[in-house]
Design brief:
The chain is of the alpha/beta class and 289 residues long. It has 8 helices and 15 strands. α5 runs parallel beside α6.
């Protein structure tokens, strides 16, 4: 069960364009599974920033000098994330977690491709460790706009059988996007399962590529989450259920991990008219004539 924990910053380190924060987290660390996230209070107790920010859990340390700790990756671009990036060792941070549904792990050893975009690749490293522990082959494809915005390159090389890098500007690895390289990786290594985390456009392309090849995929979506606990309904997206019916589901509690072939990627941000409970479209008086 998720819990609220009054933690503190253990360390902050730079990783390209990003900041990696290690936070004391108590039993949150022992409960976390790959793909889950924490929601952090922003700005301190007297801040006017009321809503928490959701961050994928990059790694955990279940025991040690500080007890359980979690690592989160922050890209400072707004007031809240800039505040987090400016924390120092010993600063207080209030967190809730672990939240969301994690990645599902295969029962038997299979060949897995892990695809990450920018700092969206953060949760894939815990996943890679657990897949390898099950005897799975792990190939990683990491992409970003520039070399500085890639995350976890050295870490990936330590744990994956192969690592393929792409950058939009060609500053490192292949020039282009992760989907430009993924097909070759899947063909060469006989990929059985694709796991992905990153921008929504990337997830749509990866999921569609996997589906077209008859490969199972799981995607951790990055819809904006205001509450993280399923109350505010800001992170809904259309997903096809096992009965073939489309429903608007909450990314924070029904996800963030979804089967890639069930998300209606082209309709994200809308309520498709055939969605369960959607209001019927009324024709105008002119259109009815």
């Amino acid at each position: 069960m998720p819990e609220q924990y009054r933690g503190e910053v253990v360390s902050v380190r730079r990783a390209g364009s990003y900041h990696v924060l290690t936070l004391t987290a108590g039993s949150i660390a022992t409960q976390t599974r790959p793909g889950q996230f924490v929601a952090l209070a922003i700005g301190g107790e007297e801040s006017g920033l009321l809503l928490r920010r959701a961050f994928s859990i990059h790694g955990v340390q279940e025991r040690g000098v500080f007890g359980g700790t979690v690592d989160v990756v922050v890209s400072p671009h707004g007031a809240g994330t800039r505040w987090l990036a400016q924390r120092h060792r010993g600063d207080a941070v209030n967190l809730v977690g672990p939240l969301g549904r994690p990645f599902s792990l295969p029962r038997d050893p299979v060949s897995c491709a892990l695809v990450g975009g920018g700092y969206g690749s953060a949760p894939l490293f815990m996943l890679a460790e657990q897949l390898r522990a099950r005897g799975c082959r792990v190939d990683m494809v990491l992409g970003a706009a520039t070399e500085e915005k890639l995350f976890g390159v050295l870490e990936a090389k330590r744990m994956a059988s192969t690592v393929t890098l792409t950058t939009d500007d060609g500053s490192l690895g292949q020039t282009g996007q992760v989907t430009d390289a993924l097909a070759g990786v899947m063909d060469q290594h006989g990929t059985d399962v694709v796991y992905a985390c990153g921008p929504m456009g990337m997830l749509a392309a990866v999921a569609n590529m996997a589906t077209a090849r008859g490969v199972y995929s799981q995607c951790a979506v990055e819809e904006s989450m205001a509450c993280g606990i399923g109350v505010c309904m800001t992170c809904v997206l259309p997903v096809i259920g096992d009965d073939g019916t489309t429903r608007m589901v909450r990314s924070c509690i029904d996800g963030p991990v979804f089967r890639g072939d069930t998300v209606r990627w082209a309709d994200v941000g809308t309520i498709p008219p055939d969605t369960l409970g959607a209001s019927p479209v009324r024709e105008s008086s002119e259109g009815a004539r």
